[in-house]
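User: Teach me something about this protein's shape.
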Amino acid sequence: MSEKNALTHHSSLITRVGILGGTFDPPHFGHLTMAAAALAQLQLDQVLFAPVGVQPLKQDRSLAAPEHRARLVELAIAGDPRFVLSRADLDRPGPHYTVDLLSIIQPQYPGAALWFILGEDSLGDLLRWRDPARIIQLARLAVLRRPDYEPDWLTLDHALPDLRARIDWIEHAEIDISASDIRQRLQAGSSIEQFVPPEVLQYILAQQLYRHQP
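Assistant: First, the predicted structure itself:
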């Protein structure tokens, strides 16, 4: 379902919405596993996949063009109508911050509860984000546990005393792959078919993406 179609169907029938942001450069099974875990455990009606235009904390390399990344997300999520592409970040000028993304999405789903989906390691970086106090006002955090990671709770609790009450913990099966690993494999001529849906792989090869990106 396109974002346009999603916006025509987000009436009172949609009351629980997850938001998964990221560069999706490219999207892979790890992203789909995260979204599916949050969808099931929080009984969400939809999960929005929201590719960013420019990630403020990841400006050390060039991203694939926004339209390529949007199309890759569409292909990756095509198998589940509850997964929806959101262009809220792509169709606006930067810089792009999570708090702005949530401020745009909230009025698109009036009355719905929002969850921003992130990994436990990203939770540890939350104080580096723009206006984290506002973020946890706009949405609850659906945090995917990492058994080998523990955030600095002393610092987080001091800065955001309401944080723990705004977290829902998600258990999921981690896939040991990242988008940067996939890009490196493509540059090395290695197979990535076990990490991305077939349609995503076909598009990457057809468009010759990531051949020369760092």
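Now, about its shape. Residues 147 and 195 are 22 Å apart (CA to CA). The beta strands are 16-22, 46-51, 83-85, 113-119, 140-144, 167-170. If you'd like, I can walk through any region in more detail.
User: That's plenty for now, thanks!
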